[in-house]
Protein 1
Amino acid sequence: MEEQKSARKTRVGVVTSNKMDKTVVVSVARLVHHQKYRKFIRRQNKFKAHDALNACQIGDRVLIEESRPLSKDKRWVVVKVLEKAAI
């Protein structure tokens, strides 16, 4: 069977906080080209994502996916942990 392509957005980022119950804060960094100065600038967004198993630790690289609103700020779900943090 073929997998259906999801219309939901996905992002890869690093967990910066896991102090909340079943919620992690994920920082997603990207490079943006500055039109005038012709340089690349680092930009960063923070997303609150649902972590049902409380499996994520600070420093883990995770894949998050867009979902329905789960709370006031939480609109993303952790799909999988790509890389565990080196302790």
Note: The chain has no helices and five strands.
Protein 2
Amino acid sequence: MQRKALQLYTIKELCEKDFIGTLKNVAQWGYEGAQFAGFYDTPAGQLKNTLSELGLKPAGSHTGLDQLKEDSLKRQIEYSHEIGNELIILAYLTEENRRNLDDYKRVADTLNKAGDLLKSEGLKLGYHNHDFEFEKQEALTGYEILLSETDPSLLSFELDVYWAAYKGYDVVQFMETLRDRLVTLHVKDMAVKGSERTSTIFGTGELDLASIVAKGKEMDVSWFVVEQEHFETDLETAAKENVRVLQELLKQNV
């Protein structure tokens, strides 16, 4: 079953003003899940009840590398269990953690350890890419290092299709290389204006979203997660149009 979620970082300004109220809007707009980028000091019990009332499912939660260690990770595990979240995702590597091959190997070691603890708790660990992982670190890209240095049973990948395309990859082919390790997709479209590339409302950019979504369906990814970072309209309009287009794409070839 293919499910549609919104990465809440897309509408972070709305979440900062009224997190619970914004979740209600997300459900009304047609999303089945919410992917978290922070919980805005919301008690887990309150969020669990809100999600249940709205019929929304957690589609993962984004976190930082430092939060994948020791007590911080344990707190995330407890919170995830309470709200019914099954996937914790490393959202971003700061520059000091990605300067060279050894940095990436240290990150991989941290991911293996965190993934092992999460697996013992019945949860999954994921990795979300940007563009810098595709830079060469000696013979391999950072992404290739993470793939080779982590245990496939302990780390899955959330592919951000925009950043893969940004670095010149054929997204559908790249999805094939991840095979069973591809757990969710961050779906974005890309507008190209001269030398500038930005994310844009689905269907108004250059990416072949139909082929990407079709491949995701074929590979049975658990969530198609809408994300947008640049806007020419208000956040609500963008979020509503993106889920409408995504729904149409998911209906194709059914």
Note: The mean pLDDT is 96.
Protein 3
Amino acid sequence: MSEPLIIRRRLPVGSMGKKANGWWGMLALIATEAALFAYLLFSYFFFDVQYGRGWLPEKLPAFRLSGPNTVILLLSSVAVWWAEREARKGNRARQCLGLAVGLLLGIAFVVIQGFEWADKTFTPFSSSYGSLFFTITGFHMAHVIAGLIVLASLLLWSALGYFDDRRNAPVTIGAIYWHFVDAVWLAVFFSLYVTPHLR
């Protein structure tokens, strides 16, 4: 009598052994989103080559907040990777802990990025540099927030026992997206924060 109840509580998803449809869908989504960021960063470097130092703001983007924020986002990726690993082992407590830590670190990233934006001497409307800076970091922030919604959903479903050592594809699919968000930030951080200081 209890077995049908357990079956009803599980989400209708398979294991990663068969490469669930969501896995391929996530790869397609990542490919299109990666193209978007590639175009945005191409625009940034196009302006940079055309105008050189002259188009940059007087006060270059600093590492005071962006540096620690980069470390925070990388640590969140490690936590989500650990949660995914524990999901494959069927260890629900550690899976939930990893997702919770990843979620909290992601929220911390969003808060610090808000302070980073407020600290800028330029706005999205002050110059082409300001417009591109806030467009690129804003699009990334939108992806971080989408990733936080994914992590929060996975954490809730994990706490409810929807996954086990055989049925855990959503955790892996969500982790792939979160790692993509982190990889994009590394490209954004290098482009917007590091390269201006290399002149």
Note: Confidence is low (pLDDT under 50) at residues 1-8.
